[in-house]
Amino acid sequence: MLADTGLQRTSRLWSTLKEVCSLLRIPDDASYGQHDTLFQHVQFKAGQRIHTIGQPFDMLYVVNSGFLKTVAIDVFGNEQVLSFPMKGDLFGVDGIHGKRYESEAVALSNCDVILLPFKKFTSIGKVHPELETAIYSVMSRELIREQAMVSMLGSLSAEARVARFLVNLSERFAEMGYSGRQFNLRMTRHEIGSYLGLTLETVSRTLSAFNEIGLITVDQRAIELKDFSALRTLRRLPPSRGRAKQLAANALAASPEGQVTAA
Amino acid sequence: MLADTGLQRTSRLWSTLKEVCSLLRIPDDASYGQHDTLFQHVQFKAGQRIHTIGQPFDMLYVVNSGFLKTVAIDVFGNEQVLSFPMKGDLFGVDGIHGKRYESEAVALSNCDVILLPFKKFTSIGKVHPELETAIYSVMSRELIREQAMVSMLGSLSAEARVARFLVNLSERFAEMGYSGRQFNLRMTRHEIGSYLGLTLETVSRTLSAFNEIGLITVDQRAIELKDFSALRTLRRLPPSRGRAKQLAANALAASPEGQVTAA
DNA sequence: CGGGAGTTTGAGGCAGCTCAAGCACCGTGG
DNA sequence: CCACGGTGCTTGAGCTGCCTCAAACTCCCG
């Protein structure tokens, strides 16, 4: 089953339905307490795969701690990062339809992941109508997330994408009880670029540019957000000194022999 | 069956569960026949809105005939086309999570749409376990579709996106029993561009380029696919349009009547 | 201390965008 | 019937944001 994809020794930790729901930010229901079903935790080390493309689907997964990425591989063999699941996120949903996972999930750090055997989970849903609705709700949430990604990739500039990425990360960290101002990236520039539809160089340059104009400070993986609201609303960077010079040079080059513009 | 793909004026007013499932391409189940619940059809004229952003959610929708678009509107008021639902497609799913629709759905042609009151629909799911699984499956399918979009927007060139768009459309038309070779686009260049993360000019130019090198013929909304497999595997057009023309000319020069000089 | 993976930065090129102009199509009203 | 206006489509020309290629630097780990 999971053995070949790097299953670590099974932890002795188990979670109740109530705990799982709380993790997933699902509205609680008193009746869940009655259920004595326990869900198993599994530990993964950085780099290990939780599931791979084409592997038969039988589980959903919820992140209890740690950081992961999910990756699609297109027809031409290119990897594309689809999401960075972290505490409270559900993944594996894309396996439901075709009975096989359509993406792969990789641990970016040591992780603690809760297994939700799909059949078992949905059968509990029949006993607890609230849970069933909640499952639909979580899947809907995932869909909305993907729609937001599509929207972002379809219309935002590189700077705006990176800015939103930082803001989203910050909010996630804050939700998890960490600082939303200072944090360490868990992924490489390459992975961020893949996620945002940019090259790693563009990501690096954009972060450096944000750093230069005081929106953030960045040192390798360490990030500090300095101007949250500017990041939030950023659409396009103001002309840099370099670009300003360039524009000024162009303007000067044009004016001497050019016509005088009427006021 | 519902195979009457004809005009809306004679369309049926109600469908059985069995018919809805068949439309959705959900594995059938004999027990559905027992259910006497009927689902209402509603007709929309081109341009009419089925639901708008922020409107309270209570229904899912299935397209019985006609063509629609779903649109997100981002923070800055920009429209972004998210999908082009057509016969057999489900939409409205993004409303489940927040109890309000996150996107709006607009009819591109006259449409016949089946209403699925969410509460009623899921409560039937409790009686028919197969149906419940099927609902999960359809939602999972939608998620996979969005993932594919993200993947496309993140990594493919303009030409590849347009080519895939045509191929996907073609396959959908074929599934619906129409010709997959010749069809009319139901959406504007602007809408296609928004969907693919391109400008309308780029869409237009790309279609013209495909036309010039013989992959398709295009005249306004009328499309004919000439080289399906080339469209399928197309990654990037030869370097520039100029050179593309050149190459096309060279290729044609090899065949008898192929003497073509660059314009 | 050496090697590999990740990051930064520069220089230059090109795909796709912007701006602009003209054409095609279609419904409406004279 | 045609004139007319509005919407959508095509095509051109120029620009630029992001990519590509390349080199050097940092950090980590054995």
Keywords for this entry:
homodimer, Arc Repressor Mutant, subunit A, 2 domains, five-stranded antiparallel β-sheet, four-stranded antiparallel β-sheet, 9 helices, DNA-binding
Walk me through what this model shows:
The structure is a homodimer of 263-residue chains. In chain A, the strands form three sheets. A five-stranded antiparallel beta sheet of chain A has the order 1-2-9-4-7. Chain A has a four-stranded antiparallel beta sheet with strand order 3-8-5-6. Chain A folds into two domains: 3-155, Sandwich (Jelly Rolls); 158-250, Arc Repressor Mutant, subunit A. Chain A is built from nine helices and twelve strands. Chain A is globular and about 55 Å long. By secondary structure, chain A is of the alpha+beta class. The interface between A and B is large, with 46 and 46 residues. The structure holds a DNA duplex (30 and 30 nucleotides). Chains A, B: Pfam families: cNMP_binding (PF00027), HTH_Crp_2 (PF13545). Chains A, B: Residues 156-229 form the HTH crp-type domain. Chains A, B: One of its GO terms (cellular component) is cytosol. Chains A, B: Keywords: DNA-binding, Transcription, Transcription regulation.
Q: Kindly identify the CATH topology of the largest domain in chain A.
A: Jelly Rolls
Number of helices of chain A: 9
- What general outline of chain A do the C-alpha atoms trace? globular
- Low-confidence sequence ranges of chain A: 1-7, 240-263
The count of strands of chain A amounts to 12
Roughly what percent helix of chain A? 40-55%
Q: Structural class of the secondary elements of chain A?
A: alpha+beta
Q: State the major sheet of chain A.
A: 5 strands, antiparallel
What is the rounded distance between the termini of chain A? 76 Å
> Which quaternary structure do these chains form?
homodimer
- Report the C-alpha radius of gyration of chain A, rounded: 23 Å
Counting structural domains of chain A, the number is 2
The CATH architecture classification of the largest domain in chain A is Sandwich
N-to-C order of helices and strands of chain A: EHEEEEEEHEEHHHEHHEEHH
Task: Quickly name the level 1 CATH class of the largest domain in chain A.
Answer: Mainly Beta
Give the chain pair forming the largest contact, with residue counts: A-B, 46 and 46 residues
Average pLDDT level of chain A: 87
Keywords (chains A, B): DNA-binding, Transcription, Transcription regulation
Domain HTH crp-type (chains A, B): 156-229
Protein name (chains A, B): Transcriptional regulator
Pfam families (chains A, B): cNMP_binding (PF00027), HTH_Crp_2 (PF13545)
